[in-house]
Amino acid sequence: MLSYSIQEICRKVKGLVRKYGTSDPERLCMECGINLIYDDMGTEDTSIKAMMIVYRRIKNIVVNENLPDIIMTFILAHELGHAVLHASRCKQFTDYGLFDNSGVMEKEANIFAAELLLGDSDDLYHEMRYSELTLFQIAAAHNVPYELLAYKLEIMEEEGYDVPELPYEPDSSFLSGYLGDYDSDWL
After folding, report:
1. Residue 92: its pLDDT value, please?
2. Average pLDDT for 57-69
3. 138-173 pLDDT, tens per residue?
4. DSSP secondary structure of the chain
5. Cα(151)–Cα(172) distance, rounded to whole angstroms?
6. pTM of the predicted protein model
7. Which residues pair with 62 in a beta bridge?
8. For the chain, how far is it from start to end, CA to CA, in angstroms?
9. Residue 91 half-sphere exposure toward CB, CA atoms < 13 A
10. Cα–Cα distance between 7 and 170 in angstroms, integer?
11. What is the pLDDT of residue 89?
């Protein structure tokens, strides 16, 4: 069970977008006073992609600068979701906070990222309904992984849209352990 309902997460996203006039996660971090740090955290499949850290009540998002460009924005939107939704719930270790990456928090951050990056449900619904593109092709056209589109479809279903059946259900940790070439794998 989610800590926040899908509607609550979507309201938070829409409030941020309305307040700051952007859905760009990098600009939203700046506007929200969240420190954004790009660092070399390795290129192996086991390398950390990003993390949200609270240090002395200051939110920091650290992103692996080695990530392929096509997923950098999604990863940042996901971590922004943690900062907005979960900063007050982080575990405390000495004088800094790190997140307990439970499946619930990961799913909520994915829903946040899907709403932020895929925007208006009406537009996306019409695109899907009147296009012959597959869900994978629609995701690629929006420069997001299929799994993120699947989370947006979950939001849309909650909103009452008649959405297509998914080829498979995404796991909340669908990006863990992979730093491969997303550009060619998605097409």
Report:
1. 39
2. 92
3. 999 999 999 999 999 999 999 999 999 898 887 766
4. --SS-HHHHHHHHHHHHHHHT---HHHHHHHTT-EEEEE---SSTTS--EEEEEETTEEEEEEETTS-HHHHHHHHHHHHHHHHHHGGGPEEETTEEE----HHHHHHHHHHHHHHHH--HHHHHHHHHT----HHHHHHHTTS-HHHHHHHHHHHHHTT--PPPPSSPPPTTTTTT--S-HHHHH-
5. 9
6. 0.86
7. 37, 51
8. 33
9. 7
10. 20
11. 64
- Cβ neighbours, 10 Å, residue 92: 9
Q: CA 112 to CA 109: how far, in whole Å? A: 5
Q: How many Cβ atoms from other residues are within 10 Å of residue 38's Cβ? A: 15
Name the β-bridge partners of 92.
97
CATH architecture type of domain 6-119: Orthogonal Bundle (1.10)
Residue 185: pLDDT band (50, 70, 90) is: very low
Length of the chain: 187
Closest by CA position to 6, among listed 83, 79, 81, 73? 81
Pull the structure tokens for residue 118.
Answer: 């895929």
Q: What is the mean pLDDT of residues 26-40?
A: 96
Cβ atoms of 87 and 118 closer than 8 Å: no
Distance CA 50, CA 82 (A): 11
Domain boundaries, the chain: 6-119
For 131, the token pair is 């296009």
Question: Residue 90 is encoded by which pair of tokens?
Answer: 């982080």
